């Protein structure tokens, strides 16, 4: 996980001054959004909680909605 | 990382006040009064022992002076062609008056020197004198006569050590720019061969000449080269390598995007292909741009030997380059992570050979690589006799003894030896090879083949993204130019290379006639009828 | 405002489309569930896809030089358009994370079993970010060489496997009940072929805009041929046992052994899977980055790539607990999940454009 932190810190150090220099707040905002989301997920993962698994959720949902799938495949 | 550093540099630059640009030479005209002019001259240049100021009289009453730098001009010739006619002059020979008439008649009739020009500014005169001119000042004339009889010590033309050929001319460039341009002229007789000169370096005043074939090289390329050369504002250019660093496209890339050669025939071939050559005074190395990756694998010998053989050698070079970059990494990855990929007998014998060595495979490979690099570096900088001692010590002590003592496994020595040999097969990419090799070895130790592959993909992407003077670095492979593969995958016979490299985007793509395949006369006739 | 200045050629585009389609099927070998009829299912899938993709070409022909995001905004206005764009971006982002984990699970299981997943994924996303950062031209020029290598490898393997071909493996021809076959066909259509919907973000940069349709169809068709042949080869070599392996195509390569000399081709296979996966993830990451930048009217898409790539890697780590779950997802529910995005969205936008009579004549001068 430390690699991901490194990557995020590097990207912040690299891009933040540029955004401030260009006064591109919209771009900076979307950058910050992704950055914070990624940071949140990394922290959550490194704290070792039980992770909700994205595709498992979708899988179970669709399986319940369309029960014929099990028969067909 | 580097770009951060670079930004910091820029920031520093903005902090310190803009460095005083060396004051542009003040226009300071010659007065026409010899005593005054000489005084002004001495005031500007000081009193170095190599500055020769010889004052004399033309006939009886007109004083004059000859100024030159001892060592930059050919003394006997100055005496013979300048001093002699001027001092032997008397009233009967020429109707002279002070001033303009005398000046003209001297210039037009008396000086048996080919290269001559007038100069009215003192500063300019000084500049010319310091780059090898001989100045003649005459009392009463507001102009100085500048003649060029250069005669400094120059090395004779010899075969360059770095690019040796078996079958081809034995001459190489020398340090003197004029000799180099002459060498090129002798290779290319067409008047389209154009030289343009710039003076770069405020202090060194280095002459830099670009050479291209008018009508073949793309005018935009020539413009671009000139633009990049003109923006160099530095105090000194001592070497073609300096120029390279100022004009290259990707300054942070480990790959060079400016080519170099020491051979006039190679430079001429590049110019014929529509490239631009950059000749720098004081260096026997000529740069050529644009430079493509595939050029590193070409040698002048390729074009003189038979095509089948050279195709083979070229592939050996590709393999050697891959081997020099990959083999330690592959070795480490295979022995550490993927033993199942090795054939069992090989695996067993290797395991036996490496048993009991203290370091893991990565460590061994890195240490041996380091020792090899040190040996190589020591061998280059030392006198030849000592160099041999170094190689003996290296081969015997480090190779043999380390294995015998059980410090290093024998397979590592074999791999590193192979790496070393193959890294010399592609001298132009030698530096990159060494760099990539280390990184790949470390990655292989950490992540096995996966690490190697990821790194190769990144390197490849980087290579694809590079450009040299607007030409993609990896062309003709990517973007694919099938026509140009005749000189990449194979080496087509000379008569088959009809077009110049398409990837260079040149004005005149056709090099020669199509129907040049040799054969007996009768057959040709039969075919035609 | 142009975010991408590069222009790409027809040949390169077709080649990366082939690579893109062949991409994950190289690893996952879809349709092995229907046994020897898998190639029929693939053919049905390809046929379906060739019909559905007509919508994409119409859309691109209507709005030459505009990406899907820009088209959305023109057709549905700023709010509804943005919403549709968001759905689309979510899809390609999620697809990217799935493809990433497909390939890296393979690496983790087969190449370096002891390395933690985080490290593998981190290393895997790095070249993708780098290539996407360098822009579209570099992606295409890198990709085309990788695809040519892939095709060479493909030919080589085909040749070397000849001795293990057993044509009896096709034998009970078309015994699968039709609904099952149709379902497998639908899955095949959505799994490799309709994923090309992401090229709605890339084809607008083709240097010959009138050749867009040619590019789409050539890429899809040849990509389909490669996939179908790879499935047929698998059946020829492994027969019914294919379904028993996690990575059947890797296993099929592994058993090549000619005269004790030409063997261990699995190293080539593994290299090839990683390269082709790299290509696919890069295309998706690039499209996602460019799409977000266009959606938010940023000045540059490149700064977004690092956090977006990190996010993609992190999401890919949180998709499934293990590789089998991933397979189940891909073979069973993926088509229902993906079809609304990959076929529904372009269709919706096309209908919208048609109803609103866009683009007006003014723009087409």
Query: Would you list the SSEs of chain A in sequence order as H and E?
Result: HHHH
State the CATH class of chain C. Answer: Mainly Alpha
Distance between the termini of chain A: 37 Å
Oligomerization category of the chains in this entry = heterotrimer
Q: How would you characterize the largest beta sheet of chain A?
A: none
Number of strands of chain C: 2
**Count of domains of chain C:** 1
Question: Could you give the order of strands across the largest sheet of chain C?
Answer: 1-2
Radius of gyration of chain A, in angstroms, nearest whole number: 19 Å
Q: Compute the number of helices of chain C.
A: 11
Q: What structural class do the secondary elements of chain C suggest?
A: mainly alpha
Count structural domains of chain A: 1
The best one-word shape of chain C is globular
Q: What's the gyration radius of chain C in Å?
A: 20 Å
Sum up the overall morphology of chain A in one term: elongated
Tell me roughly what share of residues is in helical segments of chain A: over 70%
Distance between the termini of chain C: 20 Å
CATH homologous superfamily grouping of chain C: Amino acid/polyamine transporter I
Structure overview:
The complex is a heterotrimer of chains A (73), B (529) and C (365). Chain A is mainly alpha-helical and 73 residues long. Chain A is 84% helix and 0% strand. The longest helix of chain A has 23 residues, at 25-47. The model of chain A has no long low-confidence stretch (mean pLDDT 81). By secondary structure, chain B is of the alpha+beta class. Chain B has three domains: 34-148, no CATH class; 177-291, no CATH class; 307-468, no CATH class. Chain B contains 16 helices and twelve strands. In chain B, helix 10 packs across helix 12 (361-381) and helix 10 (307-336) packs across helix 15 (430-465). In chain C, a hairpin with a 3-residue loop joins strand 1 and strand 2 (262-263). Chain C starts with 9 loop residues before the first helix and ends in a 9-residue tail after the last helix. Chain C has one domain (10-347): Amino acid/polyamine transporter I (Up-down Bundle). In chain C, helix 2 packs parallel to helix 11, helix 3 crosses helix 10 (302-317) and helix 4 crosses helix 9. Chain C has helices at residues 10-28, 38-62, 68-111, 117-134, 136-160, 178-193, 212-238, 248-254, 266-295, 302-317, 323-356; strands at 257-258, 262-263. Classes of the chains: A mainly alpha (73), B alpha+beta (529), C mainly alpha (365). At the A-C interface, helix 1, helix 2, helix 3 and helix 4 of A face helix 4, helix 6, helix 10 and helix 11 of C.
């Amino acid at each position: 996980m430390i690699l991901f932190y490194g990557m995020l810190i590097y990207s912040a150090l690299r891009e933040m001054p540029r955004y401030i220099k260009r006064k591109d707040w919209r771009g900076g905002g979307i950058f910050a959004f992704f950055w914070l989301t990624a940071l949140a997920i990394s922290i959550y993962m490194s704290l070792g909680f039980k992770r909700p698994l994205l595709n498992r959720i979708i899988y179970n949902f669709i399986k319940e909605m369309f029960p014929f799938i099990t028969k067909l495949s | 990382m580097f770009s951060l550093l670079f930004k910091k540099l820029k920031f520093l630059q903005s902090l310190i006040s803009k460095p005083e640009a060396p004051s542009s030479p003040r226009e300071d005209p010659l007065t026409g009064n010899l005593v005054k002019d000489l005084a002004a001259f001495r005031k500007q240049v000081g009193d170095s022992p190599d500055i020769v100021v010889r004052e004399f009289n033309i006939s009886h009453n007109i004083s004059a002076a000859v100024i030159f730098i001892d060592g930059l001009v050919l003394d006997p010739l100055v005496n013979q062609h300048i001093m002699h006619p001027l001092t032997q002059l008397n009233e009967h020979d020429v109707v002279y008056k002070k001033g303009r008439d005398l000046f003209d008649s001297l210039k037009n009739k008396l000086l048996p020197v080919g290269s001559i020009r007038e100069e009215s500014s003192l500063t300019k005169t000084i500049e010319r004198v310091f780059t090898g001119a001989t100045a003649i000042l005459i009392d009463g004339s507001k102009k100085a006569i500048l003649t060029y009889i250069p005669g400094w010590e120059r090395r004779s033309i010899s075969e360059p050590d770095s690019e040796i050929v078996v079958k081809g001319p034995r001459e190489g460039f020398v340090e003197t720019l004029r000799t180099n341009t002459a060498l090129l002229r002798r290779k290319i007789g067409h008047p389209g061969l154009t030289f343009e000169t710039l003076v770069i370096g405020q202090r060194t005043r280095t002459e830099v000449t670009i050479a291209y074939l008018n009508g073949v090289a793309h005018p935009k390329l020539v413009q671009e080269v000139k633009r990049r050369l003109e923006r160099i504002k530095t105090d000194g250019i001592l070497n073609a390598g300096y120029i390279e660093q100022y004009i290259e496209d990707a300054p942070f890339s480990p790959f060079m995007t400016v080519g170099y050669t020491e051979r006039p025939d190679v430079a001429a071939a590049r110019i014929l292909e529509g490239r631009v050559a950059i000749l720098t005074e004081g260096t026997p190395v000529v740069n050529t741009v644009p430079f493509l990756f595939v050029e590193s694998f070409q040698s002048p010998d390729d074009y003189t030997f038979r095509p089948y053989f050279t195709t083979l050698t070229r592939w050996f070079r590709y393999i050697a380059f891959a081997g020099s970059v990959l083999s330690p990494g592959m070795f480490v990855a295979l022995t550490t992570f993927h033993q199942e990929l090795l054939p069992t007998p090989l695996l067993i014998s290797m395991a036996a050979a490496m048993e009991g060595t203290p370091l893991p495979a990565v460590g061994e490979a890195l240490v041996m690589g380091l020792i090899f690099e040190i040996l190589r570096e020591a061998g280059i900088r030392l006198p030849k006799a000592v160099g041999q001692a170094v190689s003996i010590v290296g081969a015997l002590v480090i190779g043999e003894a380390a294995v015998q003592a059980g410090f290093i496994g024998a397979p590592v020595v074999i791999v590193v030896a192979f790496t070393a040999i193959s890294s010399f097969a592609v001298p132009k990419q030698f530096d990159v090879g060494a760099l990539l090799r280390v990184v790949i070895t470390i990655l292989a130790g950490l992540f096995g083949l996966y690490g190697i592959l990821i790194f190769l993909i990144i390197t490849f992407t980087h290579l694809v993204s590079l450009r040299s003077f607007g030409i993609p670095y990896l062309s003709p492979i990517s973007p694919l130019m099938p026509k140009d593969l005749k000189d990449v995958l194979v080496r087509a016979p000379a008569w088959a290379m009809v077009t110049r490299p398409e990837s260079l985007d040149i004005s005149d793509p056709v090099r020669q006639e199509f129907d040049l395949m040799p054969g007996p006369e009768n057959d040709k006739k039969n075919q035609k009828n | 405002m142009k975010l991408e200045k590069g222009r790409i050629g027809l040949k390169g585009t077709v080649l990366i489309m082939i690579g893109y389609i062949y991409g994950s099927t190289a690893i996952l070998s879809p349709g092995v569930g229907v046994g020897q009829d898998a190639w029929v299912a693939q053919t049905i899938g390809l046929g379906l896809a060739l019909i559905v993709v007509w919508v994409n070409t119409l859309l691109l022909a209507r709005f030459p030089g505009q990406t899907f995001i820009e088209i959305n905004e023109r057709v549905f206005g700023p709010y509804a358009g943005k919403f549709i764009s968001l759905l689309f971006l979510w899809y390609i982002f999620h697809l990217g994370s799935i493809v990433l984990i497909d390939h890296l699970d393979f690496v983790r299981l087969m190449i370096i079993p002891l390395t933690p997943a985080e490290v593998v994924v981190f290393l895997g996303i790095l070249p993708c970010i780098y290539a996407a950062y360098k822009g579209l031209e570099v992606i295409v020029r890198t990709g085309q060489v990788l695809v040519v290598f892939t095709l060479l490898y493909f030919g080589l393997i085909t040749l070397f496997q000849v001795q293990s071909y057993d044509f009896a493996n096709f034998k009970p021809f078309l015994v699968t009940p039709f609904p099952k076959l149709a379902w497998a066909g639908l899955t095949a259509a959505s799994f490799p072929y309709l994923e090309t919907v992401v090229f709605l973000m890339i084809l607008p940069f083709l240097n010959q805009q009138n050749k867009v349709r040619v590019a789409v169809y050539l890429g899809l068709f040849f990509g389909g041929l490669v996939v179908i042949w790879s499935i047929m080869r698998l059946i020829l070599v492994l027969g019914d046992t294919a379904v028993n392996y996690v990575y059947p195509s890797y296993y099929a390569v592994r058993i090549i052994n000619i005269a004790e000399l030409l063997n261990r081709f699995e190293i080539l296979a593994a290299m090839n899977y990683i390269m082709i996966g790299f290509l696919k993830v890069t295309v998706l990451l690039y499209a996602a980055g460019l799409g977000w930048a266009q959606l938010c009217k940023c000045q540059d898409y490149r700064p977004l790539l690092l956090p977006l790539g990190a996010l993609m890697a992190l999401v890919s780590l949180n998709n499934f607990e293990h590789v089998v779950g991933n397979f189940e997802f891909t073979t069973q529910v993926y088509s229902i999940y993906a079809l609304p995005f990959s076929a529904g969205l372009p269709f919706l936008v096309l209908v919208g454009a048609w109803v609103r009579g866009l683009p007006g004549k003014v723009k087409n001068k």
